[in-house]
Specification:
Blueprint: H1 2-22, H2 24-27, H3 39-53, H4 61-73, H5 78-95, H6 98-111, H7 116-128, H8 132-144, H9 150-163, H10 167-180, H11 185-204
Length: 206
């Protein structure tokens, strides 16, 4: 029975790791709404939203081209320009162009430093590149800013804490994620795993 329980949790871990690390933008990145009535910018936003909400959504070059047009040919205000950089970053990340995605998130945050969604998306890139302290700093900033879908920031930070073996911090973050999004399966799975991890360590230390 114990073996079956362990196998079940290992499969849950594998599912979340694959989802978070190998397909980061498909899960927990956040598109940013554009206010301006500029067709190219709106297309860029809607395509980025599809990446974050539709599994296996394929990013085509013309989608990034729409973002380029919005950035190059229209005088967007800083907030909308920042949003468009953040949305293009999601599209780049979905294509696996992580350096380009990171550059776009940096541009977005230079223009609009309180854009919580961009901190989450940039944190995912740092996380993927195993720069866990930088990822934690970005997730924490998103939490401070009370970013939309804040449960994602808590969950992502919990995953980063796990990488650093900061189990108690991870546990608290998964609990916070579930306060904002009760019964959310990824957080429930990680919370159970970390509790088991802490229980086993406590047994070994007795």
């Amino acid at each position: 029975m114990r073996l079956a329980h362990m196998i079940k949790h290992k499969l849950s871990i594998l599912h979340v790791i694959v989802f978070t690390f190998f397909l980061p933008t498909l899960c927990f990145a956040q598109s940013v709404m554009v206010i301006a009535d500029v067709e190219a910018a709106q297309r860029c936003y809607h395509d980025a939203t599809k990446v974050t909400t539709i599994e296996n959504f394929i990013v085509r070059d013309e989608m990034i081209f729409s973002c380029n047009v919005a950035l190059d040919q229209y005088g967007l205000v800083d907030k909308d320009r920042a949003a468009t950089f953040a949305n293009r970053g999601i599209l780049y990340a979905a294509q696996g162009s992580l350096a380009e995605a990171l550059s776009d998130y940096d541009e977005a945050l230079d223009l609009h430093p309180v854009l919580g969604e961009a901190y989450i998306s940039r944190g995912i890139i740092f996380h993927f590149e195993k720069q866990f302290e930088k990822a934690i700093a970005d997730y924490s900033r998103a939490i401070e800013l009370e970013s939309r879908d804040i449960h994602l920031a808590y969950f992502d930070r919990g995953m980063a804490y796990e990488e650093l073996h900061r189990w108690e911090d991870a546990l608290l973050d998964y609990q916070k994620a579930l306060e904002f999004h009760p019964d959310w399966t990824p957080a429930v799975s990680r919370l159970h795993w970390v509790k088991d991890k802490l229980d086993s360590e406590n047994l070994l230390n007795r």
